[in-house]
Amino acid sequence: MAVTAQPTPAVRLSSPQGKWILLTTVLGSSMALLDSTVVNVALPRIGHALDASLAALQWTVNAYMLTLAGLILLGGALGDRYGRRRIFVLGVLWFAAASLLCGLAPTAEVLIVARALQGVGGALLTPGSLALIQATFHPDDRGRAVGLWSGFGGIGAAVGPFLGGWLVVGPGWRWVFLLNVPLALLCAPIAVRHVPESSAGGSHSRRFDALGASLGALSLALVTYALIEAHGGSLPVALTAVAGLAAGVAFIHVERHRPDPMMPLDIFASRQFTAVNLVTLCVYAAFGGFFFLTALQLQVVSGYSPLRAGVALLPTTVLMLLFSSRSGALAERIGPRIPLTVGPLLCAAGMLLMLRVGKDAAYAADVLPAVLVMGAGMVILVAPLTATVLASVDTDRAGLASGINNAAARAAGLIAVAALPLLTGMGPEAYRVPDAFEAAFRRAMPLCAVVLLAGAALAFATVRRPAPECRHPECRMHCSVTAPPLEPPRGSAGSGAGPAS
């Protein structure tokens, strides 16, 4: 049943209700954020505990990303029609139930299914987190509320790897997932009691593009499956790949001819929007492969504990938290072309420096320099990326543009996690054999660097300074690659999410 559109409440941030609203949105977004930052650290322990192959570990990451990327636009539309608080609370409870199933999973197969269900919950709660702030706070307080929300989210991102490593070493890897349950039990009642309901007026008559969402998710699922299982070279895998491409073509056909498509193709008439999304695909494919493989390399080859491996990557998040807003301000002065070119180049250099990380790698001499260079590149790159996406389309389509960019980033990451082991010759048991994994890692980092170089070249050739009247995001900070802040539209019916703010 649709919720009747209500006047936008004018809750002040300094009021008790305003503080409760901020708390519940931070808790909700932190669930998805913590989950995405801690799972990579736990992968080796999960594999040994469940006797899982490398392919099962890939699916442990990708099953979540698959449903989240495929359904996040639909999740925002559900909130607009049926009530943002209602869908947000449903997403929180769904996410908690799936997390409980993950924590209790007796086999790798059950864990993978539970992770896919987690992604569904994430697609419901993630768009609603910032949309609730946009819909409830007084306009004079909204920018500060968004900044606080992003800042606390950055703290959560910084704590995530440390917390994940501590949980894996201490109570065990299952608590990486079980931790979400008490967070949900705290978040949902606060939302019901203190957050006013809101919906988008005029959107009730719009039809959901369920067919488009299904075809998009199906295409990603089939292609991902084919890449992960391609080492067998069987006919069913080849047929799956063909079916995935066919589903992708069908998705484009449906989006071109539906009256209310999930992803209107005419938005790509903006050459700048198309170019920046191609840069996004390159950048986030490299990032996805880097974080997946590096967490394994540090533990499998370098002998780091899960806690030490999680802390080892912490500087990238800290740098993002401290300097992303300054990077966004610099890009506004000089334009996005230089940051979107220099950022990927620095990230590529950081990945090449990771080639020094092998057996008995010293953190200060081998790991830290690579992580610092990588973090510097991310600082320069990520915040201007969102501003350029939003500036490349009309203001009333900014939420849609942001949502498409978010989906592109997540899809690029899951494809990279699926493809890199295939391209580097990792066998099903590679993560159990340090020498084999190290050899594949040394092939993977240059591949990721090449993809980043392609993104830098594309940005240099195609990205231009936005028009003076371009839209800028209210949230200028970006603190996590895997769970980026959102940027919903002002005064429009949709909600969106973008890889950077």
UniProtKB/TrEMBL annotation:
Listed Pfam families: MFS_1 (PF07690)
Chain segments carrying region Disordered: 482-501
Domain Major facilitator superfamily (MFS) profile as annotated: residue spans: 21-467
Membrane-related topology note: Multi-pass membrane protein
Keywords: Antibiotic resistance, Cell membrane, Membrane, Transmembrane, Transmembrane helix, Transport
Main location: membrane
Transmembrane portions of the chain: 20-43, 55-75, 87-106, 112-133, 145-169, 175-196, 208-228, 234-254, 275-295, 307-325, 337-355, 367-391, 403-424, 444-463
InterPro entries given in the database record: EmrB-like, MFS, MFS_dom, MFS_trans_sf
Subcellular location as annotated: Cell membrane
Keyword tRNA processing part of the UniProt annotation: no
Superkingdom of origin organism: Bacteria
Classification via NCBIfam families: efflux_EmrB
Name of the protein: MFS transporter
Organism: Streptomyces cynarae
